[in-house]
Design goal:
2 domains; about 5% strand; about 240 residues; mainly alpha
């Protein structure tokens, strides 16, 4: 059997986010429809009630991914989920694991699309999958990306463990900063989740947005070797490969 893998062309992160948001809307509609029909099934066994919600979700996520290469959102955005090392769709079990990991990690998973070589989110990386464009030739150049390679011809990078450790330190320091700023700008009742004034709600949202921005920036810069503590260093001219 020929497992030759064609060249993979990856989408922009924004295209993947749009697919995810479209799927999220579908799941929300399903949830509300399920809740609305619960009075009709008042005397139905609990297991059957739960099945009425779980079965459509399983069909829309793992089943569609396994048999068609993507969810409805992926098809709408012209994306395909496939195995990272062969031009094959993934199985139902791997598609289920991928969905569970993505649900658990949330938006944090997508940040890694900006730093991994194959533009993989964490849920892609952990399940050895990639998301590619189905018909890249129909899209403009700014929508198409090839595999991302670290500039190892010019730089020496710290180990993966060191970069990960430094990123975690920055994330921890950022979290401490967030706590300090929250304590300095928000009242005790707001911090306890009891009552926040409109101004405090704005400040809280602003601090949360800054925290997410700092988190994403730390991950991207740290992985690229641009944070203090895990900076890449130029290779000596004698070690630079001759092309």
């Amino acid at each position: 059997m020929n497992n030759a893998t064609p060249e993979m062309v990856y989408p922009r992160l924004l295209r993947r986010v749009r697919a995810f948001l479209f799927d999220s809307v579908i799941f929300i509609v399903l949830l509300y429809a399920w809740l609305a029909t619960m009075p009709v099934f008042e005397n139905t066994p609990p297991l059957l009630k739960i099945s009425l919600l779980i079965i459509p979700i399983v069909i829309l996520e793992p089943i569609l991914v396994a048999f068609t290469g993507g969810t409805l959102g992926h098809h709408l955005m012209g994306l395909r989920i496939r195995d990272a090392s062969s031009d094959q769709n993934i199985g139902v079990l791997r598609a289920t694991a991928r969905a569970i990991i993505r649900t658990f990690l949330g938006w944090l998973s997508f940040i890694f699309v900006l730093v991994t070589n194959k533009h993989q989110a964490l849920h892609d990386y952990f399940t050895s999958t990639v998301v590619i464009l189905r018909r890249p030739e129909t899209l403009p150049a700014h929508e198409r990306f090839s595999a991302r390679a670290e500039e190892r011809a010019q730089y020496r990078y710290p180990t993966m463990a060191r970069r990960t450790g430094v990123i975690l330190v920055y994330v921890f320091l950022g979290f401490l900063t967030l706590i300090a700023l929250s304590m300095a700008t928000l009242s005790e009742t707001c911090l306890n989740g009891e009552h926040c004034t409109p101004g405090e709600m704005v400040i809280s949202q602003l601090l949360s947005s800054l925290w997410l921005l700092a988190l994403g920036t730390s991950i991207v810069l740290g992985w690229k070797g641009l944070l203090y503590g895990c900076r890449r260093s130029p290779l000596p001219r004698s070690e630079t490969p001759v092309v």
